[in-house]
What we know:
Largest sheet: 4 strands, mixed
Strand order of the largest sheet: 3-2-4-5
Strand content: 5-15%
Shape: extended
Mean pLDDT: 81
Structural class: alpha/beta
Number of strands: 6
Oligomer: single chain
Amino acid sequence: MPKVKIARKSTLVDMTPMCDVAFLLLLFFMLTAKFKPQDPIKVVTPASISTTLLPESHVALITVSKDGRVFFGLDDQNQRLQLIQNISDQYKLGLSAEEMRNYALASSVGMPINKLKQFLDLTPDQQSSYHQPGIPVDSATQELSQWVNYTVNINNNNPKLQFVIKADDATKFSVIHKVLEVMKKDNHNKLDLITNLKSIPEGTPAYEKFKKEGGLSNAQG
């Protein structure tokens, strides 16, 4: 009885469809990705051993430069647009749609409210080189308080809204104290501070706890 010959099949796999899918995904992410706006100032934050991560959304950022200038920004572009619309209406700034769009595209702004229009009328390149004097934090104008309260309003008192302070390591404490007093006066007592991560000093209770929980082996691995 003759043997039945089994036809040999090629072991080669056509990778063309997979390559097409990979390039389509890459193109999709390139077109839909939102780039983070450039910060108006460079801030060197102090170091700490805290490992709490910054929330990915619902973040209101108060930035304090080395020379004590205060900036305010939101992580959501649509909320930034709504915020500047409310500020413009309240203070009758008469901002155009283009000027409000310029604010929405920025990360943080540190301008007195009465000078916002002339700043937002600049091109993005001009804004990046413009020396912003900072938002006043004195008790007379209470402008920082206004930014904070309007942010709470457009978030409909969302409990997930988190106020975060990012201050330079060389900032004078007197400026930070003024910012904290503004937040305290508006009953915003839960704040996060942005710091650089540093190692836990050996021999401290935090170090022993971290070692006991297996953190050192995880970090080394």
